[in-house]
Amino acid sequence: xxxxxxxxxxxxxxxxxxxxxxxxxxxxxxxxxxxxxxxxxxxxxxxxxxxxxxxxxxxxxxxxxxxxxxxxxxxxxxxxxxxxxxxxxxxxxxxxxxxxxxxxxxxxxxxxxxxxxxxxxxxxxxxxxxxxxxxxxxxxxxxxxxxxxxxxxxxxxxxxxxxxxxxxxxxxxxxxxxxxxxxxxxxxxxxxxxxxxxxxxxxxxxxxxxxxxxxxxxxxxxxxxxxxxxxxxxxxxxxxxxxxxxxxxxxxxxxxxxxxxxxxxxxxxxxxxxxxxxxxxxxxxxxxxxxxxxxxxxxxxxxxxxxxxxxxxxxxxxxxxxxxxxxxxxxxxxxxxxxxxxxxxxxxxxxxxxxxxxxxxxxxxxxxxxxxxxxxxxxxxxxxxxxxxxxxxxxxxxxxxxxxxxxxxxxxxxxxxxxxxxxxxxxxxxxxxxxxxxxxxxxxxxxxxxxxxxxxxxxxxxxxxxxxxxxxxxxxxxxxxxxxxxxxxxxxxxxxxxxxxxxxxxxxxxxxxxxxxxxxxxxxxxxxxxxxxxxxxxxxxxxxxxxxxxxxxxxxxxxxxx
Length: 562
What we know:
Radius of gyration: 26 Å
Mean pLDDT: 73
Number of helices: 11
Number of domains: 3
CATH superfamily of the largest domain: Mog1/PsbP, alpha/beta/alpha sandwich
Shape: globular
Low-confidence stretches: 6-15, 176-187, 285-382
Structural class: alpha+beta
Largest sheet: 7 strands, antiparallel
Number of strands: 23
């Protein structure tokens, strides 16, 4: 058994406890009836972590304590079972003085419950974006066989950087584990528990979707659909009454009504909820972004060519790779008007109360004023084959790709609906979303989302004899030294397995105060060198993974003639 050391006489003194000989506790950042969450320092790896302490009340029987210990461990197993890029990582589970402690990633944030009560309800469009994030989280959990069973505003975090986080898997269960509800076991907050769970403890994916609806209801209305004076009145209303009709939900109203239906089989499916939420998001105008003087200087002076015509057509040739496309794309959140999220006192951050949970899905974004699309250059730099060539303000009146919706790939692969091939007669065929603008800059073709921040680029001028890893490494060094990649963070730069003369370079950087996420694939096909790049806001990255994979899979090229 691993114990607790104290370096002072206070025993529980803040900053003096050392758990498992490694985790130095700092200030508590959350507490509840069954435990505390501490901000701590991992002295071995020299990093901040969050440590959840299990503290059963004195009045609990040994049997009840054992049950709650099981719940704590189940929480760690549930989060660990979710193989999702935005689930907060579980670093460790240790036992100290006979009690479990969960060590997890530290996430500065406030709960959705706190934000609603301090700042007021959200607009329907913003709530829809939150809903897309939470829906993606739940779908990932359900696909892994995990039912959350306690979705509510208290278990949704809004990070200081705008991330939407679903937390606290303490009541979660596995679909194949059977029911874990028993007499006297807390099953969640009555105001956010589905009618069937309140009635007999039945849990299902539809139950989680009902709780999602109640949470989104609270996001726009400021209270739950079954808010009553006490828990008993709430349970009675759940059993006998329809939910209170929303008054501020606007376009979100039908989604809430469809999720809050009494019979699980009558509720909207996850696919239908996603479709409707995306329609609400799409109806909200995007906000133009501000060009950064540093970023503009980095590219002024580059040759800008605009071909007379771009056309869409089919054809055959060599695809970049044959990795299977993903079955469905996780949610991608679009831009949204700023919601003021004041920071809490310095040094404080809210980790999910008693929750492991995860950073799942998207973020809220900050509004940016309109600014000119160009600026004088003081320090020109040659264009890059990375995403930076195109991730800058575009000239006005660029042509848009036609709405062809070809949906036909090559060699058995299919394009997503709303995508078609772009070609300029040079022997390459690039899958691009219909309606995006396009522009040629030197040997690079830029494709931009006209209502968002995503850019897709293709550089056709790479040297096929060059080493792709060395080329990407040299380019990263050059751009960082030139100041074109502020806040640069390299996530991966390596040869791509099973593909000849191919390297993948994944990285993050700051653009106008926004964290960007990009990937560049440098490769050789048909004896020609190419580089395909995709750049988007970091919180949209997971939602774009399937699109990136589809582009890399269905791009194809033919050898140059002559």
